[in-house]
Amino acid sequence: MIIGYITYLILAVAIVLFLSAAIRILREYERGVVFTLGRFTGIKGPGLIILIPFVQQMVRVDLRVVVQDVPPQDVISRDNVSVKVNAVLYFRIVDPERAIIRVEDYMAATSQLAQTTVRSVLGKHELDEMLAERDRLNAAIQEILDQQTDAWGIKVTNVEIKHVDLNESMIRAIAKQAEAERLRRAKVINADGEQQAAQKLVEAGKMLAKEPQAMQLRYFEALHDISGERSSTVVFPLPIDLLGLFNKTPGDAK
Q1: In the CATH hierarchy, which fold is given to the domain comprising 65-166?
Q2: What is each CA distance from 192 to 91, 184, 197, in whole angstroms?
Q3: What tens digit of pLDDT does each residue of 232-245 get?
Q4: Which of 90, 156, 185, 221 would be a feasible disulfide site paired with 146, CB 3.0-4.6 Å?
Q5: Cis link prior to 46 (omega < 30° from 0)?
Q6: Residue 34 phi/psi, 5° resolution?
Q7: pTM of the prediction?
Q8: Residue 229: band (very low, low, confident or very high) from pLDDT cuts 50, 70, 90
């Protein structure tokens, strides 16, 4: 009798172990790459999956977008500036079969490929381009990575450069360059203003030369402005006609 119970118990344990080894449940974002006696036999999921224990094995694959941080890379730009650049990589698996069969560890392989690609692409550009044209550089890196990882069944959806770290001397040099650029713009704006003011003065002088009475009125207006100020300025009115006498040459006086 006891032997019968032990037999039933062993049988029940064997059934439980068989079912636990045979039944798999895959979530909506998971797929199972199934191997039968070591040979690829298909992709299953999502839902309930039944395997033949000890004959079939399954490798789970996550189809969600993976966010991977690219460690800081030492990059020498085309204008010989040493910087540290780190980025963020977004990718997902579109073909579980190739991701498992064609590459040993697709996560490590994609990470290493992203690091070398970042160094290679950014090394072909100058520092100003790294700082001002990140969108174009992101697109270039993403395109290269997507082409190379296509054989692994991986789709690189986006690459974003996060930081471009400069040393202190380069930061000071960039600050001096920006200050010099702002000073240059200020001088150009000031020169443009002087040129426009000179043009307006020439036009005003031509208009006043046509009507001497207008010059007298402008003279009186200037006297009125000066007299209204609380200052110790002494103004001696001088007729304009008298100034004309000083401008005549001796030959004209005769």
Answers
A1: Tetrahydropterin Synthase; Chain A (3.30.479)
A2: 53, 12, 9
A3: 665 555 665 655 65
A4: 156
A5: yes
A6: -100, 135
A7: 0.66
A8: low
